[in-house]
Design brief:
The chain has a six-stranded mixed beta sheet, sandwiched between helices. The protein has a four-stranded antiparallel beta sheet with strand order 2-1-4-5, with helices on one face. The longest helix is centred in the middle third of the chain and has 13 residues, at about 140-150. It contains ten helices and ten strands. The termini are far apart. The chain is α/β, with parallel strands linked by helices. The protein has a single domain (about 5-235), classed as 3-Layer(aba) Sandwich (Rossmann fold).
Length: about 240
């Protein structure tokens, strides 16, 4: 994907809440069709970066280029209208509404019926449970619904904030399989994730944040093999002893 067009470019982004900077000059990029992981320890600035791209961070400097246009200063609604989708870590579905109602309440969809039909084809389990209340779904089913809601507006970029955080260990692998499928739905993916190894395994590239800065970046396979990254950020795999 090295020759694919640049979709997102974050350039020297700083910002936070109040007078305290959480991001201290983050730069990264994402090409069309890519899955890119943003990893790091707690407090490294991963979710803050996601909020900065979405326009949810109150104070931001630097440039956030989406398809060449700077998003800084635009509202979240304007960014969504330009083709940026978002799945937050929590509160990502309406528990009291049915599966189909969760999709129907998304605004800004030109042909809602056609789009829902397309997403039910992409997520057949949701089609089977279309009349079920979202609150009755399993964690994995609810995550599928959250993804489908974010895809209703046909975004070209979707940002996932800790997509496996609320899932049982048995459902985590299914979530990463689902993430790996997203580019086939004509969307590129920026994933903020604590389970860095598993996320990098389905990504093309990754960035590891530390102290609000990019500490290590590169191809996913390179990061997984990097001794420093393994020691400091990714967690070493267990070694069997005979």
């Amino acid at each position: 994907m090295a020759g694919a067009p640049l979709l997102l470019g974050v350039e020297d982004v700083r910002g936070g809440y109040g007078e305290v900077d959480i991001l201290n000059g983050v730069s990264l990029f994402l090409r069309k069709g890519e899955i890119v992981t943003v990893a790091g320890t707690n407090g490294a600035g991963k979710s803050t970066l996601a909020k900065a791209v979405l326009g949810l961070l109150p104070r931001v400097s630097g440039r956030i280029l989406f398809e060449g246009a700077d998003l800084v200063g635009l509202s979240t609604e304007d960014r969504v209208g330009r083709g940026v989708g978002y799945v937050p870590q929590v509160a990502n579905v309406f528990a009291a509404l049915s599966v189909v109602e969760n999709l129907q309440v998304v605004v800004g969809v030109k042909d809602q019926r056609r789009r829902i039909a397309e997403l039910f084809e992409a997520f057949p389990l949701l089609a089977e449970r279309r009349r079920a209340r979202a609150g009755s779904l399993s964690g994995g089913e609810r995550q599928q619904l959250a993804f489908a809601r974010a895809l209703m507006t046909s975004p070209r970029l979707i940002i996932l904030d800790e997509p496996t955080a609320a899932l049982s260990p048995a459902k985590v692998a299914e979530a990463f399989e689902l993430i790996a499928r997203l580019p086939s739905l004509n969307v590129s993916v920026l994933v903020v994730e604590q389970r860095a190894r598993q996320c990098l395994a389905v990504s093309q590239r990754g960035y590891i944040l530390d102290g609000g800065k990019v500490a290590i970046e590169g191809e996913a396979a390179m990061l997984l093999a990097d001794e420093r990254a393994a020691e400091l950020y990714l967690g070493r795999t267990e070694k069997r002893h005979s």
